[in-house]
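Narrative summary of target 7.
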Amino acid sequence: MEKTYIFGHQKPDTDSVCASIGLSYLKNELGFNTTPRVLGHLNNETKFVLNYFGIKEPEYLNDVKVQVRNMKYNKNAIIKEKASIKDAFNLMQQEEETGVCVVDESNKLKGLVTLKELAKHLIMGEKNRLFTNISNIAKALNGEVVLHFSDEIIGNIFTATYQSKTIIDSVTFTCNDILIVGDRYKVLEYAIISKVKLIIITGGHSIDENLLIKAKENKVSIIKTNLDTYHTSSNLILSNYIATILTDSFPITINNLDYRTDFLELCEKLGHSNYPVLNKSGKCLGLLNMNDMNQYEKLHVVLVDHNGFSQSVDGIEEAIIDEIIDHHNLLNIGTTVPINFRSMPVGSTCTIIYHMYLENGVKIPKEIAGIMLSAILSDTLLLKSVTTTDKDRKVVEELAKIAKIDIKTYGHEMVKAGFSIKGKKAEDLLEEDIKTFTVNNKTIGISQIFTMDYEDIASDMEVFIDKIDKLAMDRFHMVITLITDIEKNGSYVFFDRKSENIVKDIFNNDNFQEGDYVQDLLSRKKQLVPNVMETLEK
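Modeled conformation, tokenized:
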């Protein structure tokens, strides 16, 4: 079963990470093959949660772009360098390919042979030289090995077409010669005495017992074939190692982790038909033909805690989205086929996933209950945020029973571990949890920082605002940052300097300034984003 990746948004928080883990466990219990992933570094709070409940941190997912390994390349179009030319041709015919990858015993690429090169060799190549092994020869001639003294056969081919006396009088055989002959006793005897490397007897003739004894004494290998002399000569040259006709020992290769889009650019640039596929160790995995570029499998994914392209993984448009579980407003993501889309106006994605466990009758393990509870407490600011619903409160109570923890005590520990900003740089804080929104073709960045250490930022406010200005200049039309004080139940508001008048309109206050405190402003999603959208649309 194909694996499905489950992940949250690009800036992982406790809800997105724990929702990915919780949903993946549920899906796997129902018989699916899924794995949770994250799209970035985990914050301190999420690390605390996973460590507290003994859950392994999900692996990082860089992108879901189609790679060469997802394409339908031919994994059978590989042949060993000591296979015969005939074997290579038969493999091309069998696999309906115009080339094959030639590899050594450890599957390292030695070169690429194509039908064009085979044809060129048969027409223009050396016809009287053999470099192969006894097994290849017997196979090519459909012959029988009568005597065998050398595995590897290297030498010159001589066909006994002259009269016996002429051969004996004018031809000097050496130990590097291969003789093709019929039932000619005198020639056979002369060749054996001369200690040739190999004798190939054609026409299915048997060899005299006396000659056989002499051949054993002189260590002359013998193969018998039913083919006539002409067909023996023609097929013998096809028994040569395929490596003997390699003209391209350094073909253009592609890595199985290369992106399909990069492969298409390569094809357009070079126009070659065949490309050997290698892994990162340099081993050959198969052959990709440019005619197969449109045959590929997309990765299957499930999105949690987001539903917009800009918030998701790189290459999401190339993946198959099977399902979306989210509690935010609907954005611009689209699919080519109907999918399961579940959205509820609750404070946390894990509240939705809890109900999915109930609906499917799957028991929630203690550690899964613990991280899902943590996610709800995190996203609702310990159930104090205006996004908190009665469903969230009820689910928290049920999960606390399973996880066997005291909500208030544990919640305080989690907040203390996650919301400290001591030692962090301003630019890291700004981009740790920033969400992107688009209004009238303008890109808005809204960042939120939760802390109990507001004084650390307030002491160097000018530097902090400078960082916001730079972020707005580099990436956004406008940037607003909420520094939310958990204990005071409110937020300090910062923004890029050029947007001061817009921010005054957003808060309907002509005297609004950088760092002003707004009591009970806790939710970016419900309390700030709607006002920003409405103001900019005007």
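The first helix runs from residue 14 to 29.
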